[in-house]
Amino acid sequence: MLSERRLQVLRAIVQDYVGTEEPVGSKALTERHNLGVSPATVRNDMAALEDEGYIAQPHTSAGRIPTDKGYRLFVDKLAGVKPMSGPERRAIQNFLDGAVDLDDVVARTVRLLAQLTRQVAVVQYPSLTRSTVRHVELLSLAPARVMLVLITDTGRVEQRMVDCPAPFGEASLADLRARLNSRVAGRRFTDVPRLVEDLPEGFDVEDRGTVATVLSTLLETLVEENEERLMIGGTANLTRFGHDFPLTIRPVLEALEEQVVLLKLLGEAGDSGMTVRIGHENAYEGLNSTSVVSVGYGSGGEAVAKLGVVGPTRMDYPGTMGAVRAVARYVGQILAES
Fold first, then answer.
1. Is the pLDDT of residue 209 over 60?
2. In angstroms, rounded to a whole number, what is the distance separating the alpha carbons of residues 115 and 327?
3. How far is CA 161 from CA 112, 146, 217, 223, 329, in A?
4. What pLDDT was estimated at residue 226?
5. pLDDT one-digit tens code per residue, 316-328
6. Residue 158 CA: distances (Å) to CA of 103, 137, 240, 282, 298
7. CA–CA separation, 215 vs 236, rounded Å?
8. What is the DSSP pairing of strand 145-152 with strand 55-56?
9. CA triple 160-149-108, angle to 5 deg
């Protein structure tokens, strides 16, 4: 374990390097920070930090820069994330309050995160498997054709066409709609198959085939893999950090095009806590020069998806974590009220 003084020196190195983009020397540290010790003591502390792998010396400079291990300790020892100011919080709320549907919420969230953090923003759509049914609507399009509309508690809307084996009257359709909603409205998606399995038996024999077809389409909608959708924005922000990527920015851009990679980076949606993956902690090699800050969002205290940002390891961690957490909280409130 590092002594509190050496931890203080490491914090000062991280803060200065993030702010100035220049390797940090002992003289600059003692001038900028009230460390309470001589430059010689700071030099000794820096030598110890370097020996333990928390900082490194770029070959072109007498100063030091943090390593992945140094950033990791800095983040782990943060007393707290940087709170958003009152005007910032109001700006977030006003921007997101104007959203008209779930797609608009996600699009606005991506833009807002990218602007606040000046990093690449990634937002996962709410997962169907962690959602509940708000309402199932059935609309007659033709005597033997029905549109099924599934509306979730997060505002997600899924539409499917159902070709019925026989004509199905409006009265029968209204009866099915009422019975279906009485069983599944407000229930978790994972519970729906069990709740509707005996529903066809309550209908006339000639209607059971159509009821079974509608239910089959509903259950297929619940388990489809299209739930893993992402929206990404602010990729152009990376061009501001060209010198933070050792060779080229291309591997980072290629990784950001891979949806599977991004989903793994964000982590399991059910985990609502803040996650910070730094440098080589990212399993995908193309992202070894980046850090990923992500957190779950949702309504009712349960995460239904993740959002976060990707940027160089030289990032303002307290500010980025504060922005990501604040945006996630507002998105969750909007979903709860929608």
1. yes
2. 12
3. 35, 6, 8, 16, 35
4. 47
5. 999 999 999 999 9
6. 12, 10, 39, 33, 19
7. 45
8. unpaired
9. 100
